Fold GDP-perosamine synthase.
Amino acid sequence: MHKHPLAIHGGEKTRRTPMPPRRAFGEAERAMLMEAVDYYASRDEDPPYQGRYERLLCEAFSAYMGGGHTDAVATGTAAVFVALAALELPRGSEVIISPVTDSGPLNCILMQGLVPVVADSAPGSYNMGVEQFLARVTPRTSAVLAVHSAGEPLEIDRLVEAAHARGVKVLEDCSQCPGGSWKGLKVGTAGDIAAFSTMYRKTLTAGASGGLVWSPDEDTYRRALAHADRGKPAWRTDVDLRNPGHALFPALNFNTDELSCAIGLASLARLDDSVARRVAFVRRLSALLEDSEVCAPYPFHEGFSPFYFPIMVDAEKIACTKTEFALAVQAEGIGLGEHYGCLVAEWSFAKPLLSDDFTTVNAFAVRDSSFNLYLNERYGEEEAQDVLRAVRKVEQWYLK
Ligand SMILES: Cc1ncc(COP(=O)(O)O)c(C=O)c1O
């Protein structure tokens, strides 16, 4: 097989045009935003907290989830914070957290006076496994904060069953997997409460920043509502909500705004289409990667809603490190990160605050044997072919 000089060594790039930018803020989002602006202008009003577009977004999201109750908040971190607070866990109790997540969820546990206990992922996965969860449960465990990482749905039916059997509440963080499902069960609906980030990089986006809290239970939802807005009992019509004296407890203000909610409505209307496009790309590239001698696709399950795409590298077969391999593919014009970096057990600020110095060996193993292909709903056949061509070119160079 003829070897072509790699772009990283000064050779010609496989792909000369940039990978397609996402542009999640599309025509539909712009139109909804302008509709909200015009709506308030026509009424000669300023957009308020908890206005028409927040109500519409929450109703549409509850319908999308098949029922239940939704509150829209300012960020995904706020959504996790409010959802966790709504569970009213005993101070000082333990909350088991996934090994792979953003730092916001971990900080929510810490800032509510709870003790984070990191569980490992299932072998070969970025997601907490049920056995790995059970290995970390103690009599002090009050909840599990389970992240559907990378867009891969957790084995949530078994996790909820195992947790509830031990009196442990379940908070699902669905930020990276909106619209996903596990055995036909929509991601977020199996636990006690769910949080979603809708920041600009997420598949469901409220433009720049946002979050959603969803619960099947009205009381849990009401507690979330009050925790999201200074302790106010927003469902009560018999009290003056402008009077802070009617608050149920001290809480911060995590309100979102009408313009973000309008953008979120447009994004939600095309969520299934966005997920389907991402899934089609991942499936196509996974099939193409059968031609690779070194790379294999992350084993996503049915119902996935891909956020990023880990590509596994068999380092035994190449005369370079996984990172050198990934950087060479990147230099060919393919958008990627050398790996997904969000592993709780390695953050130095967090180490002294975790329950113990448990290491998440399975999560590290997946991280260390994969690179992280970026993707969005505008990726198609051309991009899949280019990724394969870049991978094949680099592996021809480095194959032992
Ligand atoms: C799993 C997960 N949870 C929570 C967050 C926090 O969301 P935000 O950035 O909207 O606060 C993110 C990403 O940012 C995330 O990926």
Remarks:
- Residues 27-268 form a domain with the Aspartate Aminotransferase; domain 2 fold (CATH 3.40.640.10).
- The first helix runs from residue 27 to 42.
- Residues 259 and 280 are 31 Å apart (CA to CA).
